[in-house]
Amino acid sequence: MATFIRCLLGYKPNSKQLSASRQDPIEIGSASTSESVLPIYEEERRPLLEEHGSFDRESSGSDTIAGSSTSSGTSNNAHWFSPRVISDAVIGLSDGLTVPFALTAGLSSLGDTRVVITGGIAELVSGAISMGLGGYLGAKSESDCYKSQLERERELILANRSSSEEAVMEAMSEYGLSPSTVSSILGDLEKSPDEMVSFIMKFARGMEEPPIGREFVSAATIGSAYFLGGFVPLFPYLFVHTVQAGLVLSSLIMIITLFIFGIAKTVFTGNNNRLQAVWGGVQMVLTGAVAAGAAFAMVRLIDTA
User: Fold this and answer.
1) Which of 7-21, 38-52, 215-229 reaches the highest mean pLDDT?
2) Which terminus of the chain has fewer CB atoms gathered within 10 Å of its CB, N or C?
3) pTM for this structure?
4) CA–CA dist 261, 278 (Å, integer)
5) Where are the domains of the chain?
6) Cα(69)–Cα(290) distance, integer angstroms
7) What's the CA gap between 221 and 109, in Å, rounded?
8) Are residues 292 and 248 in contact, defined by beta-carbon separation less than 8 angstroms?
């Protein structure tokens, strides 16, 4: 039962531990017509263990716990980067590729390359700092919220044990486990208040503990992604003599960049549908085009007023 709880909380045993702890099937019936029945706890653990890729099918048709999953490489690829880091990078790049592009396009209507470069660099620096600070404050608020809720749950366990037990039973009811199994799990959790708090936070409250230093990683990721993305539309203006040539070259580069970014963003979020990936690229191009066109028209309108 302790192993079952650790599986729920994200603990994944290695192959040696599984081999040592595995129970032999119970043989019932005659020798000629016997059938293997898995122990009840192993049977009820199957949905959770299968979710982590721990079950494989033997050629004989029986269920065995496998120490590793090699059937697909894509499942491992999904864990190369933290989803939160990918999310921060997407946020930074999305704004970095569209906002500075719109600004440089708008400043281009003034007809001075120096103005475009100066204004673009100023926006890049201030925008990267602002975006990084926003990422830091957002991640810090998430961490503070988790710690506050964690402390409340600890106090609740000490003050009102029955309320915590109800939260555990309500969370376990979603897995369709038998009342006896739920009762056994609850009994084991009661022996360790820390495990009960972790269980309630993860399954009953739906809150994951943020990694240590998450706010600094978020700030650095969003800020640097914004700066790198924003430098792309500004880069062509450094090598041209006329602002019109810079605008044309910058627009061509941004169409390609936004299209590739839109496809990459769709793929990294787990969608492997080619049509949807292409549509994601088209959406990014349209977003950048609308933003740049609006900025260009607004600056031209103000300049001629």
Assistant:
1) 215-229
2) C
3) 0.65
4) 10
5) 2-27+35-65, 82-143+215-304, 144-204
6) 46
7) 32
8) no
Greater model confidence, 88 or 37: 88
**What are the residue ranges of helices labelled H in 65-112?**
74-77, 83-108
Token pair 């990014």 is found at 284
**Is residue 233 within 8 Å of residue 250, measured between CB atoms?**
yes
Both tokens of residue 150? Answer: 């964690």
Measure the CA angle with vertex 154, ends 152 and 155; round to 5°.
65
| Burial of 246 (C-beta count, 10 Å sphere; 0-12/13-18/19+) | buried
pLDDT tens by residue, 59-115? 334 343 334 334 444 444 444 567 788 889 888 988 888 888 888 888 888 888 889
CA of 90: how far to CAs of 93, 186, 258, 279, 303, in Å?
A: 5, 41, 12, 17, 34
As a whole-number percent, the residues of the chain with pLDDT over 70 amount to 73
CB within 8 Å of 21: residues ≥ 6 apart: 3, 13
- Which token pair is 152? 């409340």
Q: Cα–Cα distances in Å, from 229 out to 95, 109, 119, 233, 238?
A: 8, 22, 16, 8, 16
How far from the centroid of its chain's Cα atoms is residue 94's Cα?
Answer: 16
Q: Determine the average pLDDT of the residues in 13-27.
A: 45
101, 105, 108, 110: CA torsion to nearest 10: -120
What separation, in Å, do the N-terminal and C-terminal C-alpha atoms of the chain show? Answer: 76
Q: With contact defined as beta carbons under 8 Å apart, do 44 and 181 qualify? A: yes
At residue 175, the pLDDT reads 76
Q: Match 């009840």 to its residue by tokens.
A: 40
117, amino acid identity:
I
